[in-house]
Amino acid sequence: MQLINRNMIILNKEINELDKFVLEFVDIIKKYTNYIIISGYVAILLGRTRGTDDIDMIIPIISFESFSLLYKELLEKGFWSLNSSKATDLYELLLHRSSVRFAMEPLISPNMEIKFSKNMYDQISLKSPVIIKLGEYELKTSQLELQIAYKEEVLKSNKDMEDAKHIRLIGKQILDESLIRQYKQQLRDFDG
Amino acid sequence: MAKTNTIVQLKQENDNERMWYVEYWANYVNSHTDKEWSSQQKVIINSQLQNAKHYRLTPKEYLSIKGEKCFRD
């Protein structure tokens, strides 16, 4: 793993079935909109040995027309939404800050859990992503400092604390500890 | 009370062991090539996904567990 800087990581890993699922999905979504992948899958991508049934993705708010085109191609490529077969239902859910999930039909897992961007953290992350290069592919995620702060300050489950520790140990050469503290303070203020 | 203390103690020991393993594995990842750690990771993840294919949950049941809306029957 090459930690080039805080915005670029190069991986030369063997691609597993979960990675394949994510790469196939990203290959479609990037044609229609920007995106970032966050949370558990990022820790897994960086080496954590645990499975997950869902991958968290944030996209900017897009028009219904764009979403319909995206949905059409997802269906053509073998995906289905667990929530509904109708694009209008899915778009409504997204507008109401709910997530929609896509898996390869007829499976339930793994699934991509998509949400529209909902706060300044999502917007900043979409604007300035961390790029993870996987050979000819690349994936976008948010700053590792923000992911650590969110897991340690907001989520706090054992799984999240373990993910945060893993990312801390893997990223120690490039992580900005003062930024993690700053994000934690902001998240506390945000919550209050 | 003694039983409660034992459960709390067992949970703490389990948490400590899990954190120890996270540290052990992260050190392994840091000290080996991507190909080396990822080939081991691949076995675990692929096997978990293979098992997940046998889930018998419907989308509605799955989303109900997650507390999310489903418009499918």
Q: How does this model look, in words?
A:
The complex is a heterodimer of chains A (192) and B (73). Chain A has 192 residues and is of the alpha+beta class. Chain A has a single domain (2-142), classed as Beta Polymerase, domain 2. In chain A, 46% of the residues lie in helices and 21% in strands. Chain A has eight helices and nine strands. In chain A, strand 6 and strand 7 form a beta hairpin. The longest helix of chain A has 15 residues, at 177-191. The radius of gyration of chain A is 16 Å and the shape is globular. Chain B is mostly helical. Chain B folds into two domains: 1-31; 34-73, no CATH class. Chain B has helices at residues 2-31, 34-52, 59-66. The longest helix of chain B has 30 residues, at 2-31. The model of chain B has no long low-confidence stretch (mean pLDDT 91).
Layout of helices and strands:
The complex is a heterodimer of chains A (192) and B (73).
Chain A: E1 2-5, E2 8-11, H1 17-29, E3 36-38, H2 40-45, E4 54-59, H3 64-76, E5 79-81, H4 87-95, E6 100-104, E7 111-116, H5 120-127, E8 130-134, E9 137-141, H6 144-155, H7 158-170, H8 177-191
Parallel strand pairs in A: 2-8, 4-7
Antiparallel strand pairs in A: 1-2, 3-4, 5-6, 6-7, 8-9
Chain B: H1 2-31, H2 34-52, H3 59-66
Tell me how many strands of chain A there are.
9
Radius of gyration of chain B: 19 Å
CATH architecture of chain A: 2-Layer Sandwich
Number of domains of chain B: 2
Structural class of chain B: mainly alpha
Helix content of chain B: over 70%
Number of helical stretches of at least 4 residues of chain B: 3
Distance between the termini of chain A: 38 Å
Number of domains of chain A: 1
Proportion of beta-strand residues of chain A:
15-25%
- Strand % of chain B is under 5%
Topology order of chain A in helix (H) and strand (E) letters: EEHEHEHEHEEHEEHHH
CATH uppermost class of chain A = Alpha Beta
Largest sheet of chain B: none
Q: How does the helix and strand content of chain A classify structurally?
A: alpha+beta
Might you state the CATH topology name of chain A?
Beta Polymerase, domain 2
- Mean pLDDT reading of chain A: 96
Largest interface: A-B, 38 and 36 residues
State the low-pLDDT regions of chain A, or none. none
Average pLDDT of chain B works out at 91
Query: What kind of oligomer do you see?
Result: heterodimer
